[in-house]
TrEMBL record, chain A:
A cellular-component GO term for this protein: extracellular space
Top-level taxon in the UniProt lineage: Eukaryota
The keyword Acetylation belongs to this UniProt entry's keyword annotation: no
Broad class of where this protein is predominantly found: secreted
Classification via Pfam families: wnt
Organism: Stichopus japonicus
Organism taxonomic ancestry: Eukaryota, Metazoa, Echinodermata, Eleutherozoa, Echinozoa
Protein name per its UniProtKB record: Protein Wnt
PANTHER family associated with the record: PROTEIN WNT-4, WNT RELATED
UniProt-listed Gene3D superfamilies: 3.30.2460.20
Keywords from the named record: Developmental protein, Disulfide bond, Extracellular matrix, Glycoprotein, Lipoprotein, Secreted, Wnt signaling pathway
CDD domains (alphabetical): Wnt_Wnt4
Automatic annotation (TrEMBL), chain B:
Signal peptide: none
A GO MF term: Wnt-protein binding
InterPro entries in the record: WLS-like_TM, WLS_GOLD, Wntless
Family named by the database record: Belongs to the wntless family.
Higher taxonomy: Eukaryota, Metazoa, Echinodermata, Eleutherozoa, Echinozoa
Origin superkingdom: Eukaryota
TM region(s), chain numbering: 183-203, 215-233, 253-271, 283-303, 328-358, 379-403, 423-447
Biological process annotations from GO: intracellular protein transport; Wnt protein secretion; Wnt signaling pathway
UniProt KW Transmembrane keyword: yes
Species of origin: Stichopus japonicus (Sea cucumber)
UniProt membrane topology term: Multi-pass membrane protein
Record protein name field: Protein wntless
Length: 326, 506
């Protein structure tokens, strides 16, 4: 996980840029230098995955806050928790998504209709069709994101977990490719139906991964016929599939501030008094209670979008109660 | 999202030396004070180093939209998208050159967008139906360029594009026939063309050798062969050298002629084998059926001429885009559908009559002399074989059609490697095409009048070359209870004779 915007580079244009991006491992720097044209999309992918994580978790105790540009999410990812699993998967998916989008808009010379990363041939275009080249995006994500999981950096079980979750993130895109069709034929009949594949929106991918987060399986590393594998801790549970998220240990409750484990605590977080769910004051504040403030806020209302590209709104003033955790 | 350097009409490519000043998002447009009329969505077809090939035959463009839903902004109730579209082309390698202007049009499209799932406010994208953008009947150039602008005022300074919500991006999906398929298709045409033509000449010579005037049945078969030859004629080879914008129209007309002829052929074929006492042998006897076919085809032809004809001038035009147009088009298509249904009712009725007659008449064979019996049973056998072949071809066509509609979508989800389903759809098309060609060849072959069977009632020669199927393999399969009144050979002979459709010479 890395964050290019934080170091003030807008675009990765030279190989020197690759050396200064925070958080890349050596193998990734090498890939960066070899694939400069793709790197903007990669950083775009990392960016959308952070936004998506924050969107999906905005009303939970752990709300995917970024702590510093170097490690981005801080020590919360040090342990093999559910949160770490989600972040791995959403990042891998974000990179695959952004690279595929760039490929479809023709920004990448290397990516054609061929289903391999190793180059493009004009013949492929003449003799067969092209859809959104998800295969290229997924391949690149596999190459770049998975390169982090080197033997020296992390334990073997953690490596297996990350690789599994990265793959699950990419699967969320691959398995939700939409088919769109158009009819063509004599007098507009559907004599021939042309169909093409299009990627799901990243919002949809994020929502799916959030579902996978809620249903993630706790696993442990075992040797199964001389191969190291992750198997569910509870043998009664259904074994996880390639598209499911897995984690190695339970998460902290994220109630109290403890930077050592990456928990920012929920103090001063805004909560919803009427909700019984995790965004409700009861659960979000971990039973510590909440403060109520009455504020008069001015907000935009009756908005109208004007192409292009501004939103014109009226100002409305209303009085609201704001609850924040003690 | 780009802003052109130059004033509009000129077509601007998305990137490269002459490319536009690029915007990464619309917030940037806002901070740079770029008005909507200066923002151009630019699409180069195909990407980068790739080139279009003349083998692609046609090119269809579909527009898809990314429209964001936020708490503040939603798509209006009846949104209309108004576009100023410029289309250009060039043939310079890599597309790095001056672009020639091809078309410049103003177009509107109705949007149909809805939200999937519950509205939770921020950042959802609408699910919008893809919009048909253009349909080019010839792919003559190597690179194409489409520029779309969404102005906020029309010529009369009326506000437009106010209801379309927060557009984030536009995408164009370009569809063409793949080169490989075109080659296979054209090869098939080039093979079938001389075959059917040759067979047609053979048939015509046989008919000419007869002493009598040709019968309706023979004329019909000949017309079927002529239409099939017209369909088979590999005119498409010319598109590799010349730009022929009317190619889609021509191929639609050819295909329509083929359907019309095949339908007429079936009616006359069944009618002439009816074996009742009515003497037909004239097109007038089939006026109801041919009229149904005629009306259906004329309706579709008018529609097609309007749609494809206007596309010759403006490939972005479609009847379906305007309300009156789509009502009219729907009217024509419903009329055609009603006529086709009527036709199939007639056909079904005639087939039922025919089978009833056939069953009754086959009884009569038992009392015939052996030679004559063999001869008639041969004719019946040929007829049955032909009915089954017709039915088989029709069923295969329907099955292939349904499979290509259903299976395609079904299989897409599973493919990881290549796109096999694409290949089988092509397979279906070539298969159906080949099947009907074989069908016409078989008609020409089996129904070409034999010059040897002039003295047929005196002596029937078992070794007659052109009628091999006379061999009595199936013997008498149906043996219904004998009706005494039918057993008189003299009474049945002229009627059974109609099997051959030769009552003129009796």
């Amino acid at each position: 996980m890395f964050n290019v915007q934080s170091i003030g580079i807008n675009s990765i244009e030279t190989t020197e840029n690759c050396d200064v991006i925070p958080g890349l491992v050596n193998r990734q720097i090498a890939i960066c230098k070899r694939n400069l044209e793709v790197m903007d999309s990669v950083s775009q992918g990392a960016h959308i995955s952070i936004l998506e994580c924050q969107k999906q978790f905005h009303n939970r105790r752990w709300n995917c806050s970024t702590v510093d540009p170097f490690t981005v999410f801080g020590p919360v990812l040090d342990n093999g928790t559910r949160e770490a699993a989600f972040v791995s998967s959403v990042t891998a998916a974000g990179v695959a998504h952004a690279v595929t989008s760039a490929c479809s808009s023709g920004d990448l010379v290397k990516c054609g209709c061929d289903r391999t990363v190793t180059g493009t041939s004009p013949d492929g275009f003449t003799w067969s069709g092209c859809s959104d080249n998800v295969a290229y995006g997924v391949q690149f994500s596999k190459m770049f994101v998975d390169a982090r999981e080197t033997k020296s950096r992390v334990s073997i079980e953690r490596r297996l977990m990350n690789l599994h979750n990265n793959e699950a993130g990419r699967r969320a895109i691959e398995e939700n490719i939409k088919i769109e069709c158009k009819c063509h034929g004599v007098s507009g009949s559907c004599e021939v139906k042309f169909c093409w594949k299009s990627m799901p929106s990243f919002r949809k991918v994020g929502a799916l991964l959030k579902e996978k987060f809620d249903g993630a399986t706790e696993v442990a590393q075992r040797r199964v016929s001389s191969r190291r594998q992750l198997v569910p801790v509870n043998p009664n549970y259904k074994p996880h599939t390639n598209a499911d998220l897995v984690y190695l240990q339970g998460s902290p409750d994220f109630c109290e501030r403890n930077l050592a484990i990456g928990s920012l605590g929920t103090e001063n977080r805004t909560c919803n008094k009427d909700s019984k769910a995790i965004d409700g004051c009861e659960l979000l504040c971990c039973g510590r209670g909440y403060n109520t403030k009455i504020e008069t806020i001015t907000e935009r209302c009756s908005c109208k979008f004007h192409w292009c590209c501004y939103v014109k709104c009226k100002q409305c003033t209303r009085t609201v109660e704001i609850h924040t955790c003690k | 999202m780009h802003r052109p350097h130059a004033e509009p009409p000129k077509a601007v490519p998305p990137r490269g030396k002459h490319g536009c000043d690029r915007l990464d998002n619309f917030e940037e447009a806002l901070t740079r004070h770029i008005p909507a009329s200066d923002i151009t969505f630019s699409f180069q077809i195909p990407h980068g180093k790739l080139e279009m090939s003349r083998l692609f035959q046609f090119m269809v463009g579909v527009l898809t939209l990314d429209i964001e839903h936020t708490n503040e902004v939603a798509v209006g109730t009846d949104p209309t998208l108004s576009m100023v579209i410029t289309m250009g082309y060039n043939n310079v390698p890599d597309g790095n050159g001056e672009w020639e202007l091809l078309y410049q049009v103003n177009e509107t499209r109705k949007l149909s967008c809805f939200l999937e799932g519950e509205e939770d406010g921020y950042g959802e994208y609408y699910d919008c139906d893809p919009l048909a953008l253009f349909e080019l009947s010839s792919v003559h150039h190597k690179h194409y360029l489409v520029n779309i602008r969404l102005p906020i005022e029309d010529e009369n300074l009326q506000e437009i594009n106010q209801d379309i919500g927060s557009i984030k991006d536009l995408h164009i999906v370009e569809i063409h026939q793949t080169g490989g398929f075109t080659i296979i298709w054209l090869t098939m045409k080039s093979v079938f063309f001389p075959l059917v033509l040759g067979m047609m000449i053979f048939f015509q010579r046989r008919v000419n050798q007869l002493e009598r005037a040709p019968l309706l049945m023979e004329k019909t078969i000949l017309s079927l062969a002529i239409v099939m030859t017209f369909v088979n004629f590999p005119l498409e080879w010319l598109t590799l050298a010349f730009e022929i914008p009317a190619m889609l129209l021509i191929s639609d007309i050819r295909q329509g002629a083929c359907y019309a002829m095949l339908f007429s052929f079936w009616i006359i074929f069944i009618g002439e084998h009816m074996m009742d006492s009515v003497r037909r042998n004239s097109l007038k006897a089939y006026w109801q059926q041919t009229m149904a076919i005629g009306v259906a085809c004329t309706g579709l032809l008018v529609f097609d001429l309007a749609e494809r004809g206007s596309q010759l001038v403006n490939p972005f035009y479609s009847i379906w885009n305007s309300q009156q147009g789509s009502k009219l088009a729907m009217g024509f298509i419903i009329l055609a559908a009603v006529c086709v249904c009527l036709y199939f009712c007639f056909l079904l009725f005639m087939v039922l009559c025919l089978f009833r007659n056939l069953r009754m008449k086959s009884v009569a064979f038992n009392s015939m002399p052996k030679n004559r019996k063999n001869y008639y049973q041969g004719l019946l056998y040929r007829f049955r074989f032909f009915m089954i072949f017709t039915l088989f071809s029709a069923v295969m066509t329907v099955v292939f059609f349904v499979l290509s509609q259903v299976n395609e979508v079904y299989n897409w989800h599973l493919d990881n490697e290549d796109q096999p389903q694409l290949h089988y759809t092509s397979g279906f098309f070539t298969g159906v095409y080949g099947l009907w060609n074989v069908y016409v060849l078989a008609v020409l072959f089996l129904y070409s009048p034999s010059h040897k069977d002039e003295p047929l009632l005196r002596q029937v020669d078992q070794s007659d070359g052109s009628q091999v199927e006379f061999e009595m393999t199936e013997a008498t399969t149906s043996r219904p209870t004998v009706a005494a009144s039918m057993a008189h050979p003299g009474a049945t002979a002229p009627e059974v004779y109609q099997l051959l459709g030769k009552n003129a010479g009796d």
